[in-house]
What does this fold into?
Amino acid sequence: MAIQLTERAVTRVVELARKRQTPEAFFRIGIRGGGCSGLSYFVDFSETADPKDKVFTFGAPDAQVKVLIDRKSYLFLNGTEVDWKAELMKTGFEFHNPLSGKSCSCGESFTLA
It folds into this structure.
């Protein structure tokens, strides 16, 4: 299994990278301890990849996103789909993780199943 980015997520990452004037930057996705349920997702841009990072490429050749995931986070993210939602009550990246057991009401943190 691997991680997937929806077309909406790829489009948003490309827009954000261009806006911050770093279109070649990697998009880092990871897990850290914290939040109401114990683990939380994070996203960030990174100029370089660590040799141990898993690297995934999404999108068309003219609008590609290279995603980095550190080895430890990958254990918790394997099989996850990342989407972008822009709604009245919530705007941001949304994680559909088959390994999560419960998540808090805001959807920002989770526990393992």
